Amino acid sequence: MKQTAQIIPSYTGDTSGVCSALYELGGLIVMHDAAGCNATYSAFDEPRWYTQESLVFVSGLTEMEAVLGDDQRLIEDTVAAAQKFQPAFIALVGSPIPTVTAVDFPAIAREIEQLTKIPTMGFNATGMASYVSGAGMAFEGLAKKFVLPQVPKTQAVTVNILGVTPLDFSINGADQALKAVLQAQGLTVQSSWAMGETLSNIKQAAGAKVNLVVSATGLAAAKVLAQKFEIPYVVGLPYGPAMAQQLAAMLIQTSQDHQNRIFCQAVPASDTVIIGESVAALSLAKALAATTDFKATVLCPVDTFPELLTAGCIKARDEAELKPYLQQATTIIADPLYQPICPPKARFIPLPQEAFSGRIYRQAIPELVKGFTTFRRNFGL
């Protein structure tokens, strides 16, 4: 019964991940689905839905269209919507049904781009992978299609922040805190992908000297920017003043020697675990170890990259894989919805994540970039 969740919910899917990454950039986003994925996204996965407008549509895929493979209505409806709204770009996003019928989204995207003369991307999301995969595809698509070459660089150490979505950072000000912390260390933020950002700024991303990857969703884009524009990257988050200084120093060094670096490397411990997205959880483990000698092993239940699966980070996708580690733990830091599968004897420290528990604990999601010390003290760490 592996890959079956008896108690805990699933993470946000890749379809919603694409939409979350592109939400604020002025595009027309079309989920190709009967309607269920759009309802899930708007009700549970997108905290900006009621406060910030975005052109997110669903195609209304019918049973006959799915069976017969008729893509013409999707093309015609998308073209009509594009002509009406004149978006900056168009994004077509897959879901479970078109995955089964093998819809070729990149091919349809090329046809729509020819008809509308509007840049169009097609993403083969399946609805079966996590939001990390979907948002990663979206950021990678932006890096390949929109970033302009030959953007002049300044004397300042300029940084692109890659991988900022509310699925990892919620809407508690973490996106602005990231910019403020880097600026306080003497760095200049070129662009932030993609909360609180515009497509025009992202197009100028090649002017940066280094990329900061703050979640696994941004690593694929970082690799594209490294290959196309020779911009090196650092992976990690600045939790707390000491980590901010160390990370800034690493960013400056990386901008000079062009060696990609992983900042978020944790020292593992057998009796303490943190469950969450790899970059955020590893950064938290590193910050706790540096300030309190509190060592922890990270259990990553969502998609990530091999280079992040160090000794301190273990891939554990489902309840069957998680439970052996949890049974040995004396302290567990995780979203509150994990508590039912944790042993009663273990100390449980809640750390909600939007991509797992949605809006249930949104008001309790801490902003850890500037608020790390408060979080640590609140739980006696």
TrEMBL record:
**One Pfam family named in its UniProt record:** Oxidored_nitro
Any coiled-coil ranges, and where?
A: none
Span-the-membrane segments of this chain are: none
Q: Which SUPFAM superfamilies match?
A: Helical backbone' metal receptor
Q: Which Gene3D superfamilies match?
A: Nitrogenase molybdenum iron protein domain
List each copy of the Nitrogenase/oxidoreductase component domain by range: 28-256
Q: Which PANTHER family match?
A: NI-SIROHYDROCHLORIN A,C-DIAMIDE REDUCTIVE CYCLASE COMPLEX, COMPONENT CFBD
Q: What is this protein called?
A: Nitrogenase component 1
Say which species the protein is native to: Agrilactobacillus yilanensis
